[in-house]
């Protein structure tokens, strides 16, 4: 059983577990016998509804006690508008990294950063990086660009029709802006890209979204613009969709590097060899060398940027602060760069081409999430750019810590130790 | 201010907010004045430590009351080994989708699927898809392959040295398997890939990891193999690292399609035009047409697969069941395919090349997470493949629902309605 | 020898061919013994120089007779400025595809398209597609956008310095345009993109280049702008480069889809089931189905677009018409889309996000290349957009033919037959 | 006209050239008037056929004199089997780079490398790099792996059917090998990968192809295997295709990095600071710094590897030696790496994951192409690996030269000078 075929065969035998392919295949057929009732969904979030759902479904009562204990039942209504078919609450531990000193355009000061995670060593690692950065007088950070797109698509009979439509649409940006403005006071339509593929036209509407993350805002504005287009276009589309998958929504894409989804943000710091030695037990050159090798490792594996583990810190901060954690799929990409300066210091920087963050809307007003934002002084209007800068600073801290550990050969040890005494 | 330059200029003016570039740049310089104390981190998770941390940091006491209320303070020690610098608990609402009938190799039955999210409309949308699938007798699902890699890297003086090392290492797979076995009884080293780039050698160790997600397992085994190599190799590497960024850890990569990270899994269903009409208010052909356009939209935006929003359901299920949510960055990719059959039905399928899931270890033993797994009968040993099949089934439900909504023109409406009455 | 390791081992044994690793490795060491003379290069292209080079190098005289026969020696000086160290001429056969009727914005008429290739079946396949398109009244084609970028990069001490530089540079676009205008009367600087990554700044200058392909034009203009910047910038870069690899020059990149390199062009046609049957022996639905499967096949293999074999026809036309064939690396990407219309016809389209073509400069004035352009009426000023439209039409023909063959199961047969009677 | 919309509008006005959209759109409609005769294609390559084609088409007689002069007409029959609808010959100038000393596993010695190109400065730049490498005692080079795939695809009713098929197919590798062996004595089926996506199954057959490039070989073998499968499979596919676009044929793909298309090859050299200064007028550290910046530039633009301009040299060598130049689209990708060693030397390496080369078959037997191969001693059986090593060595030379020029600030100057005195 040489080659990849051999491995696949071994896997199949493992999966079949002694049963014949036919027996296993039979298990996979649709089965219309004894179909269960599927309850009509409910957007109402109350204790009574939740309890009714537990009753109807007949699910495990032990689970119910854990997920819908007295306190949970009481505060459940606070989640109205953030969940449907509510049955209780999930809890995750919060750990604190920092304080991290950030010298940003919007964020300025020493930030205690709350992280929600269940992964051992994660908070410890980011905390270590924060220590180092703060000892160096902090990192600088800045939002480089803001934009969120919604990309409706229109199908025409032929490409010439599509062309005529494009010419018309390009003259209507001001109209589209007016239409968008009727749906939101926070969002602003700032540009419109046009992508034509045969008789398909994608209009890529770019918005600023104030301090909200803004996905719903641009969806609703996009729909209003589509309605206007359908009503007014001299060339009628055969069909159209409010979103065509061109916007990059909830997906890692290289488009992020040429445009922006959310906020493009960067952070940097200059660290003396002495500080690197003290905090990371390695040298600037060793870290530059690891960076170089890992850059190529990433390219060889077909990843979209060059970085270590943006997803770890970003997810934990998103969860703590009520961001849409599914956006990690699109936001956790970018470039880390470490290099030795002429003076022998370590220059370290991270750039994220598009992170989705907000300090109003979404989950930011829920009890623990709001508390986490308030703990940093970042809840509410006027704070979204500062939160983006904190994200960048945190990820810089994390990259320093993990690449330090890998350079020094301590990576496995840290994980072994911190996960060991789990209950 | 034409062109992209014009937009960038507008953004800069927005960011500067009337201040001069020099004033703003000055804010960004390192600042060594009044450096804050950074507490030594602590892996001990107790009420006392948490309270001490709140005291020392002098953070907002309102936040403390929310994050570390009486109940939280009491159960905090249960999170020992999953967090450091613990300060309290984060809470998210749980909603129920389903029951979803799954006819899988490992999963078999009607699953009530708990989803943790703060995004309006998410549970409702997945629930709608589950309804449809269950009405059709369920979806089939199967794990196609399992493997998790750790990819140490070794630097040599020259490529010929690297070659000699490779020839030696290839003969030692059995030794490496023995070494790996000393560190874990659940994980098994099953293959070793070799990637050479000049004088760099990447050894890609592939493991099965039992019912655990397994990242720590393969890190520790990988370190042991590295130690063995350094001790025994006839050609000494100039330097080496236990992980080289080739494994794809926590990053979307195209490598996932030619290898696997975690579990490769697929789900499919055949749906009559009648059911599509009843549940989604559209037709199989309309959904095929949207699929086609969105496939191209995705390609044009540089995404790695073809799908709608895997990240949404996957994140919510990961969070509910104690998976490492940061893995969404690598797991939420794959292929959705909708087509009309010769009989006029809708054939719908999703394939995920590598999702990271476990039913033991990580966050799976924490109170609410364990309860969510138990509610599905999927906690503990022997359940990981079934959980992977549930993931695939859920995502198939979600793709049907969202693409149905986009095809029918209902997408924006649903979001507007469900987010409207948030508190 | 299971798994990938087993295959690699087999390969190594094949390569070593019975020799020991040490013996083989020894062959690879630098060898300073008997270093050959390396002649100083020469840009002068004359018969005498060529003959002198043959003498000095002592290379095989049989080869000389073939590469520098009497006719070649005589016309060699015509290649002055297109080659260095000239030793003779290479010859490739030319075949004719078409006439292909093109209804383009710039190209209009029936084009006999010369293709230079040594691959059996290539011309025959494209010819077959042209036949079909012409029988349908031709394909439409149009250039959607034009732009060529040169992307200098500037390194600063810190990100704040980089920011100050950007703010200055954005105000200087008009100056940059003036500077660029001193170097070229054909090229025009139309926009400037800015990409910042930590303390690195990439300025992406976009030009139109008239009827030339334009790489040298934008390099020279880019250098002049860099010189201006270094002299005038209030913040001095630590170092800078006229090209930073961000422009996508000579490399396939997803950036092509969000910007354009050269000319973005599309072609389309509507083909009755009858014509599809007559010319391709298959049906519109069969071709749509193949398209769908191959779209996913491409995505799974990590390609950048969705198409069959753009590179084949594009290379052959580039070679025949004096284009830079190395640009195939960047130009041969894009989207092919086939679908069945409501009426049962086949809608077929190709879109190429960026092809590099010119009708002046480069190799377009050389004897056979110029003759090929003239044969289509496309030599000289004012013809570049028409040539781009011919490219798109040709590639549409090729995609129809190959996908037709694959759908009908005739693909292998055609290759077997046409390569069979090679001499 | 701010933003991208503004640029697009300007472009549209340029394209319309004063005409109304409707007038221009009308030009694009299918036109069935006066359809031209499309000659039946012909695979026969004779002077008579060519002349007849010129007569029938009524094309420009000046072009004919250039493309089918007396010598061309005479040697035309030699191209039988490499072209259809032959009308004459295309000529390109050949320049010589080197001699380049290569210390390879298969290539060993000083190679004068013929390059066919029409781009000024190309040969001069590669020649400069060869000079440097040879002065250093040459570069080492080795083929790391060989494999060429053909990836048929099979569609089934359902995924369980697909599974049963896979289980059957995996047991039949030996049968498939026997079937393949009936079609070729040079090619060998060495492994079979399996990719399942819903009810779609891709079988990825990997072959070694002897000294031929091998695309036709694997197509014909693949077809034979498909025929065997259709006849013998216990589960009949609904439809199937001999190639599914998964093989990466003629397209850049990231798959190349995890598998191989053709030959995976690497070359490296160690160069003293003194040699770098003498030949490139720069320093190892300056080149390392440029490399680092350009690596990120490439990543930001969404390219698939990290390199400067592999396409240039590879295309020129492919053209000179009768390779399929369209393969540049897939072959011109990989990794260049420059770094400063602890001793202050420059370590330079290139790795190409898959280049398509052969020394028999295709265009390798044509007059000038064969002469070019013979000039290097690389024509015929047993030479393909050596040719691959020469490719790698040449590209290393080219990367050194171009990155040297960019680091030293000489890039634009060289292009301006060498293209200046074109006729």
TrEMBL record, chains A, B, C, D:
InterPro entries: HMG_CoA_Rdtase, HMG_CoA_Rdtase_cat_sf, HMG_CoA_Rdtase_CS, HMG_CoA_Rdtase_eu_arc, HMG_CoA_Rdtase_NAD(P)-bd_sf, HMG_CoA_Rdtase_sub-bd_dom_sf. It comes from the Bacteria. It holds the Pfam family HMG-CoA_red. Keywords: NADP, Oxidoreductase. Transmembrane segments: none annotated. Its EC number is 1.1.1.34. PANTHER family: 3-HYDROXY-3-METHYLGLUTARYL-COENZYME A REDUCTASE (PTHR10572:SF24). Belongs to the HMG-CoA reductase family. This is hydroxymethylglutaryl-CoA reductase (NADPH). It comes from Luteolibacter rhizosphaerae.
